[in-house]
Amino acid sequence: MDESAPYLHGTAPAEQARLSLLNRLMNEGALRELSLRGGERIVDFGCGLGQLSRGMSRAAGRRLLGIERSAEQLAEAARQAAVAGEEDLMELRQGDVSAPPLREDEWGKFDVAHARFILEHVQDPLGVVRQMVRAVRPGGRIILQDDDHEVLRCFPEPPGFAALWSAYARTYDRLGCDPFVGRRLASLLHEAGAKPVRCTFIFFGGCAGEASFPGLIENMSGLLSGAREPIVEGGLLGAAEFVGALEALRIWALRPDAAFWYGIFWAEGVRP
Ligand SMILES: C[S@@+](CC[C@H](N)C(=O)[O-])C[C@H]1O[C@@H](n2cnc3c(N)ncnc32)[C@H](O)[C@@H]1O
Predict the structure, then answer these.
(1) What spacing in Å lies between the alpha carbon of 208 and ligand 1's midpoint?
(2) Per-residue pLDDT for 12 more than 80?
(3) For residue 86, what are the contacts with CB-CB under 8 A and spacing of at least 6?
(4) Is 40 in the pocket of ligand 1 (CB under 6 A)?
(5) For residue 12, which phi and psi values (nearest 5 degrees)?
């Protein structure tokens, strides 16, 4: 099977802005869980716009290698790094995570191989995790963070939202990818020859009274609007239901009792 599925979310400027917002909302928690001690040599598989990559590089105090397939994402990653005066924090290298462009002398040398929101976008996640295990030294860590779209719970439920969310999850199936890959992370590490040593969630939800709530809703709404074509043209949900559910989400988010629970699955393994 060809593991290079098209990237569901695309790389339009509006999507890059959403991904940047997501990074602002999530990276503090991710860096806390990563517990970098300093000095680690890190490779970030599917580094996207590189915001978390730069955060990891700062924490490690060492230049990081970011691998990303899309030229548009790489250009925006470089632009954001330059704006922050942080060009030196990472080397960006274009390539596919299923066949990472590592030099002969780099394989087996990294202390940490990290991937967030990548395994859900490839058709062969095990193949990618195998490459991550190969990339680290014996004793090195492999860190996987990904979605499992089934864990979302909103209450009260916005009308029509459950159908929209489930149609959204099915757009992953259509590309041959797994919308529920989160639950498989420890198993993938084991199958790839690493020893799973820790799993957890990074909480990614909130309620109306929290300062982060509007941003969380903006991210969710942007994610769903951006998937209009595969959802509606793909026949997974009618156009009227799509628009109605997004509007219901917008109105629901104004309720003082609006709340949703979601978590990013996290698993960490060690190469024997
Ligand atoms: C949701 S973004 C996550 C980016 C970053 N890891 C983060 O957490 O902000 C997924 C990224 O993976 C890239 N991507 C998708 N499939 C890929 C592949 N097979 N090889 C390399 N990059 C890929 C996309 O271009 C996109 O930038």
Answers:
(1) 30
(2) yes
(3) 54, 57, 58
(4) no
(5) -65, 155
Ligand 1 pocket, 48 CB below 6 A? Answer: yes
Is 217 within the bounds of a domain? yes
Average pLDDT value for residue range 10-15:
90
Is 256 a member of any domain? yes
> Dihedral (C-alpha) 30, 36, 42, 44: value to the nearest 10 degrees?
0
Q: Is the CB of 73 under 6 A from ligand 1?
A: yes
Residue corresponding to tokens 């991210």:
219
In a domain, 161, yes or no: yes
Measured from the CB, is residue 264 less than 6 Å from ligand 1? no
pTM listed for this prediction:
0.96
Exposed/middle/buried for residue 166 (C-beta within 10 Å: 0-12, 13-18, 19+): middle
β-bridge pairing 110-116 and 136-146? parallel
**Domain of residue 146, residue span:** 13-270
How many domains does one find in the chain? 1
Q: How far is the CA of 8 from the centre of ligand 1 (A)?
A: 10
* Average pLDDT of the segment spanning 43-64: 98
Distances (CA, A) of 107 to 39, 42, 48, 57, 132: 18, 12, 22, 19, 9
Q: What is the CATH number of the domain that holds 111?
A: 3.40.50.150
Closest CA to 150 of 172, 180, 188: 180
